[in-house]
Structure formats: structure tokens, C-alpha cells
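pinned: reference chain
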Amino acid sequence: MTSDKPKKPSDESYRVSTSGDIEVSTYLEIAKEIAGEQPVAAGEAVSGAEREAIVVIDFGSQYSLLILRRIRELQVYCKLVAHDTPWEKIAPLNPKGFILSGGPASVYEPGAPLAPAYVYESRLPVLGICYGMQVLTKQLGGRVEQGTKYEYGHADLCLSHPDSPLFADIPASSPAWMSHADKIEEMPPGFSALAYTENSPVAVMGSNERIFGLQFHPEVAHTPYGKIILKNFVYHICGCQGNWTMSNFISNSLHRIKEQVDDGKVICALSGGVDSSVVATLMYRAIGDQLTCIFVNNGLLRREEAERTLNVFQQNLGMHIIYVDAGAHFLKRLKGVTDPETKRKVIGEEFIKVFEEEAKNLGKIDFLAQGTLYPDVIESTSSVSTASAKIKTHHNVGGLPTKMTFSLIEPLRYLFKDEVRQVGLELGLPEEMVWRQPFPGPGLAIRIIGEVSGEKLELLRGADWILMNEIKKAKLYHQLWQSFAILVDVKSVGVMGDYRTYGYLIAIRAVTSDDAMTADWARLPYNLLARISNRIVNEVHGVNRVVYDITSKPPSTIEWE
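pinned: its C-alpha cells
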């Protein structure tokens, strides 16, 4: 049986050569040592700290975050870290196992990223996926070579050892999603092939029911039994208890907030969205009157949004709220700005300045609480892996100025949107708040392509109001992740009432998604699109053309800017 905590890594446990390979003789000695140990069974009592985690070592795969989501869906906390993250940052998580992600590199290339030594030294279960499987192979004494045939898409996975605990409740043959060109030419000593496909004789390998490699991607929907494989690894092999619940998250968050804030004072930005609402409620429950909420009307909100938001907060949250009308100020600062990244930074900087001005009237303020989510962090900064690139800056992450008078509190920083909604429901927030479609912090400024002006804002507000009205009448609002209008910075010729017009173009965007990391364009009924288009060109003067965006994410993002 494994111990409750991983053994402290030491330089004597494994010897790693300059090439990153673990010496085979050393591996074999330790493999024999642990061969008689049995994995912790699911449901077996685990003493010690309640905290547990699966750590995903990120090698830059486009699917790395999907691994994270799938594990969390199993009610087990999971964190994504770079392959060069030191053990000191891993140990406090009390990891129960490691997953090595896929990635674009080839392990036989110079400088290819490899797993840190503590992955093996810890004696914890390891699951390598695609490139992660090839990393296991190289570091543990096997051989990876370039394949003669690229394998991409569906493959028929056939189990040669169906009794493996990794395959509990998995049929003998099932589809699996492949995406690789390299192949396992020789498995490391002590490993056996557990499954195969037509083009991959070693589609799954394992050693001592503790270390496994999968050539396919179990985290994607195209592998229908992939989530069961991950569940088997997390529960049957790693012995996780499944204590990552929103109830536990709330309890832990309240404790951490109290500890961090102590007797300090906090201001919280409110926007009316579920993120800021959940943050405000968590903060208020933790520190009560030490919190002051500030609702800033930056002039970039939708029609009647400020009024409706204040009404909801006053009726449901019962906390001190300051309303600031700064619309004219923001509009002045945005004059002449057309670059979307510059827009976000300007709005982020002005946002903080408004808060600092209000804070002066409140006495000493120590913290700023805001609703940053995990997708915001991932898109705003380079990924935890150096193989991934920044996509865009979110105003409450990369858009903040480097010098602030506040310390940040971001209790939702490592949650996905659907997890935030679950927290909101657990906190008892009204469904109107919890299920509100996401609205970007920079507001309509990033839904106006080009320079922002008062005239353009009114045009866009009118079009967006009509779109929302029709979406809600069609009872599709809660089926869509987001639906909104964009004012494009081009004009086109039209004819209205026998007269030539030269008006703006409105684009309609509606997508379905679970977490905003990926999204698909919504197949709205033609008659609904026709009603929306007809109403916009007739009721919003200055617009004579409407188009519908049918691009998914990727390759596009949900917002246009």
C-alpha cells in the first residue's frame, strides 16, 4: 500500500543522466522494490491531510486543460504545472499521482522537455498521455522513434490485458482518438503492452499497476471511454477520495480569505456577472463589514445594465455598495484607441484608478478582490508550459497596471466558469445571477471594432438589446454560452425606402460551450436569425447589414477583440 504522502525525493532515489534518462539498473531496483505494493483501493480510508491532488505536468498539448477538467469532473482537485516546476511547489498539494500531458515535441530531439525526477522518485502512480507516454519510455530506458505513418483521428483500441485496473468497465474493443507521428519502438524494462491499435502495437503500456502510458488521448470526447480510464487511474490506482466539491471549496476559501485579510479592509469590483457576484458573496461571508463593493459604470455597459445590476445586488446581497458613474472619463481615455490590446490595458488602468480614488474616501484599503477565472489566466499569460502562447490580455489579469496600492485577492483564479456557477448555487445566489451569460470586463469597447465613440455605443446597444430580446423569446438564452452583437468598423451600401444608404455592419455571435476554452457556433434557427436581422436594420438607424459568425473556437476566440 502506498503511504498517505509521497516519499521525499532524494538524489539517491534515482540518478538522472544529462540526457534526462534514468539509469536502467536503478529503475529496475526500485521497480522490484515496489512490485509487491498494491495500489490504494478506491474508497479505502486515507489518513492524514484531507487535501489531495492529481498533478498534470504540461508539455504544451492543446488538450492539457481538458485533462484538468476531466479530473475535476471526477471531484478530484487537479493542477496543471510546467515541466520545470520545482518539487517545493508541488509538495503542498499532497499529490496522489502524476499525469504527463501530450505535446508537440519529439523526445529524441535535443532539448525536448522531460519529466522532472521527482515524478519517479515520489513512487506515486504516473499516467503518460501521447507525448507523456514517450517521455516515460525515454526516461525509463525504452526507445522512441519517428513513425513511418502519422496516426490521427479515430482508431480501434483492442485490450490485450483487460484485467488491468486501468481498464475496469472498459469493453475489449472501443474507439480512441490518436494524434501522433512518433512510436514506441522498445518499451522500458519491466513494462508490458496492455492494448494495441492497427498502427500502434503498443497503444497502452504498464508496469506494476503503477506506471502507465497511453498513446491516445482519453481526455477528448472522441475517446468515449476515456473518462472511465481517467477515473480508474484516479480512484483505483491513485486512491483518491473525491473530496473536490464546491462545498469544500467554499469552506476552504472562507478560511483562506479570513487568514489573508485578517483585520484589513477590502474593496470588490461588482459587474453583475456571476464571477464578481460569487467573489463578493464569498468575501462578505468571510469578513463581513470589512468589505466594500464598488460598482463602476464605465459607460461601456449594455442598455439598462447598470440599473438592473444595482437592483439585483440591493435585493439579494445586502452589502455596502458604492456606485460610480465614470462613463465620460472612460470614453475620453479611449478616444483614438483602435488596437484591442491597448483598449484592454487602458480600461484596466482606468478601472484601478477609479478604485484608488474611491479608496481614498474609505480610509486605508488593503486588498482588491476580483473575479479572475482560470481561462482568463491561461489566455492572458503564457501557459504554464513554455510551449504555449499568450492569446489576449484580460483586463483583470494582464491589463492591470504593474504598480497598484492594493494587494489582489482572487479566490476563483483556478476555477472554470461552470465550477463558479456551482459555487454560486451552493452559496444560494439567485439563478438570474448564476446563469447570466458572460460579459467581458472591457464591456462593449471590445465589441466595437476600431475606435469607441458615444454614437457607436448607442448603435451597438440597440442591436444587442434586440438580439437578447429575440434569444430570450425563443427560450434559447440558457442554452447558449454567449450571444451578442458586434459593431464592425466598416460601412456598406444598402437601399432603404428607394434611397441609397451607407450604413454600419452588425455581426451576430452565438456560441455553445462548457468553459469558454473551446466553443462551437450555435445553429440558430433561420427564422430566428431573419427576425433578428429584420428588427436590427429597421429599428437601429445607421445599420443596414447583419451577418452571422459561424466560426468555432479554435481557430477564433469567442469575442472578436
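why pinned: The chain is about 30% helix and 20% strand. The first strand starts at residue 53 and ends at 58.
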